[in-house]
């Protein structure tokens, strides 16, 4: 007895096809207009607005993985033995950037907890780059404020670090700025900056945050509880 595979119905195919088509059209339009990173920002903004408006659009199955694979492959091609040798020479600066990211995330979390009136645990893990966000208006406003502040502080820190290290300021600023690895690396490529160095900054930051944030938070919380208990 043969079992026929169930083919997707037309109504099931419409959302991913619509999302892919509209995203491609938005990317093409933005490329013609000359917007920054058109093939990422165009689809991102267009599909996001459609989703917020309640439109029935979605991603094709496996689309995110294919996109990440394409970006990862393209960025990996920048790393040659000569480039890796040069980038590893800047490991102290990469380490400083990672420590700065952890400190910035904790400080932004404390500020977010105060502004949004939520617990510090939620606020801190929402503030580190890659954290999750809520949807309440007050929380969204607080997040927007802390993110904008973090961007300006990170840019200033990156500018100073570039001046001390003798590197091109825009490259270090982009490396220090909170954001995803793919987005920041693609931005560096579009702006013709040092893609390997920017990518290395963000990879180091993400690894440091994943490894250090939770243990550091537990230690800081235990220290604060001990301090409060000793003061009673």
Describe the structure.
By secondary structure, this protein is an all-alpha fold. It folds into 2 domains: 10-61; 81-231, no CATH class. It has helices at residues 10-33, 38-52, 63-76, 81-88, 91-116, 120-127, 137-165, 169-176, 181-190, 195-231. α5 (91-116) runs antiparallel to α7 (137-165) and α8 (169-176) crosses α10 (195-231). It is globular. It starts with 9 loop residues before the first helix and ends with a helix. The model has no long low-confidence stretch (mean pLDDT 79).
Q: How would the blueprint of this fold be written?
A:
Elements lengths: L9 H24 L4 H15 L10 H14 L4 H8 L2 H26 L3 H8 L9 H29 L3 H8 L4 H10 L4 H37 L1
Helix pairs in contact: 1-2, 5-6, 5-7, 5-10, 7-8, 8-10, 9-10
The profile of the biggest β sheet is: none
Rounded average pLDDT: 79
Secondary-structure element string: HHHHHHHHHH
Low-confidence stretches: none
Tertiary shape: globular
Work out the radius of gyration: 21 Å
The number of domains is: 2
Portion of residues in helices? over 70%
User: In angstroms, what separates the terminal alpha carbons?
Assistant: 77 Å
Number of helices: 10
Write a concise keyword list for the protein shown above.
single chain, 232 residues, mainly alpha, 2 domains, 10 helices, 77% helix, globular
């Amino acid at each position: 007895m043969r079992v026929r595979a169930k083919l997707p119905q037309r109504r099931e195919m419409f959302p991913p096809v619509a999302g892919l088509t509209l995203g491609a059209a938005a990317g093409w339009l933005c490329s013609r207009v000359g917007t920054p990173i058109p093939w990422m920002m165009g689809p991102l903004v267009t599909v996001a607005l459609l989703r917020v408006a309640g439109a029935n659009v979605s991603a094709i199955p496996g689309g995110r993985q294919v996109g990440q694979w394409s970006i990862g492959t393209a960025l990996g091609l920048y790393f040659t033995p000569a480039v890796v040798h040069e980038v590893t020479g800047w490991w102290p600066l990469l380490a400083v950037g990672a420590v700065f990211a952890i400190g910035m995330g904790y400080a932004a979390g404390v500020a977010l907890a105060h502004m949004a009136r939520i617990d510090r645990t939620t606020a801190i893990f929402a503030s580190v780059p890659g954290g999750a966000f809520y949807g309440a208006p007050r929380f969204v406003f607080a997040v927007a404020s802390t993110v904008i502040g973090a961007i300006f502080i990170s840019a200033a820190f990156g500018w100073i670090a570039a001046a001390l290290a003798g590197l091109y300021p825009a490259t270090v600023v982009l490396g220090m700025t909170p954001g995803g690895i793919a987005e920041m690396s693609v931005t560096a490529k579009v702006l013709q900056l040092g893609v390997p160095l920017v990518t290395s900054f963000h990879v180091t930051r993400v690894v440091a945050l994943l490894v250090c944030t939770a243990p550091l938070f537990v230690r800081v919380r235990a220290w604060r509880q001990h301090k409060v208990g000793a003061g009673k």
